[in-house]
Amino acid sequence: MLGKTKAAHLLVLCLICNVFSLAATANTTTIEPEISFDQPDGMHTISTLNLSGDSTVPLTSVEITVWNISQPDQWSLVTSSPYLDQVVPYTDPATELTRWSWEHAFTMESVDCTCYIEISLLEQTDLISFGLVAYIGDEHHRPVLMHALDISSSQMYSTKIFNDNSIDMSFNFLLPPLQIESLETSELILSNVRICPAPFGICSESYTTLDSTDVTFDNLLAIEVDANAQSIQDGYYLLQVQIQDVYLTLSNNITQFVVLDQSKPSVNLTAIDEVVESQPILVDIDVDDGYEGSSYTITWSITEPDGTPRAVLDSEILEDNRLYFEPTKAGEYRVNALVRDIGGHLVTVIHNVNVSNIVPIIEIRFDGFLVENGSTITVPSSGNWTFSANTSFDTSNDQGTLEYTWYVDGKTLLSGKSFLVSDDIQQTNYREIRVQVTDDDGQSSDLSFQVVLQNELDSESNSGSILASTVSLLFIFSIAVLVYMRQRKQSESNTGFAKWTERGKEPKN
Fold first, then answer.
1. For residue 335, which of 344, 324, 345, 347 has the smallest C-alpha distance?
2. Strands 346-356, 331-341: parallel, antiparallel or unpaired by DSSP?
3. Contact call for residues 164 and 232 (beta carbons, < 8 A)
4. DSSP helix, strand, coil percent of the chain (3-state; round to 5)
5. Half-sphere exposure of 470 (CA within 13 A, CB side)
6. What is the C-alpha to C-alpha distance for residues 52 and 80, in angstroms, rounded to an integer?
7. pTM of the prediction?
8. Please, which residues bridge with residue 308 across strands?
9. 3-class secondary structure for 79-117?
10. Of 146, 57, 135, which Cα lies nearest the Cα of 102?
11. Residues 196-208: pLDDT tens digits?
């Protein structure tokens, strides 16, 4: 039992240690690697090179190398080591974080050079290195030109952008230890500033030396180039800087990628002026910044007809310089484009597009037949019937929001339904039905028609039949009487017997 308890305690202890180990590992991985030297740049030593410093990360997998850089822009290996002589962890009292102090020594007998000592972290995905310039021995020493100390390593090789006529940069420089570093000596330092156009990262022409360049030495090498005076147009360039000391010994070259962008870009916007609802609007922008390889960004926005601004959707941007959207409301849309070039110059262009609304088109159907405006429709007085306006149509953005209002004999009967059925009408005597279809812009269309009930037609038809029968009978009777009278008259006038008359009884002569 006691053995099981000890085993359980040991397991818990191991788990706790693992947790702390993981936490410590997580903390160390989030710290930015940095290795510092206790010795200053430009240190001078003979025979033995003693180095020391601090690190923010463990130095378990490093390489320390000494390079001979006595020839400008040419490095040769002097010596190297796959480990440091001594690495000791300690806790920084200010931050309470773990740091590591290190020491290393190289024997440099019979070595005379301008050298660069480099410590590389081999465990990193990207090789990270830290270095120091040292003058070893008494010969082969030269000036060393370096980027300003306040510039991070990522900025050293980034493009520098200048948006006015002045290109100004500053560099650190080291002079050999046997030279007297005084103002008078610094004034004897010569500088050489060269430039070439490089729209695609390499020189498209040979380097040209810039004359009348302002160069000052006051702990830093400050260079200022007047682009207008040197006739440098906007564009991408490679700027190369080199110095010579009082003994005319050349330093290394520092090449900097620069962009000169003094002018605002020329922006031309092309788009349609008038469309109808749901018709797509295409906007194109043409930007010319005046030099090859120029780049720019466009920030789009749209102001709705009610004055509400909105950002554009990703789906509405076809390309960097092309916008495509469908208007959903009638009125004036304002398309805004803010163009920013690489020099930070801003150009705003605005284009107004007038969007017209299309009035709804009404279609009424009864028993599948289309009802025309002003027509007369016969409906049964009993039974069910339906007038449907479902096939009425408008633009796609308005189709789903159409409002229907039905009127009977000029009075509102029903709203919100696209059809009218017999049960919706309670009155028995009505003559006219009208429907009004309204879209979301408030524009509407009307259609009206007359309605005749089937029973009215039947009674009118019966009355007409009786009247017609009566008239017919009277007409026939009249004809018969006339024929009879005519025939009787003719019979009396056409008889063949003589008519005797009675004489009076008078005496004969």
1. 324
2. antiparallel
3. no
4. 15, 45, 40
5. 6
6. 16
7. 0.66
8. none
9. EEECCCCEEEEEECCCCCCEEEEEEEEEEECCCCEEEEE
10. 57
11. 999 988 999 999 9
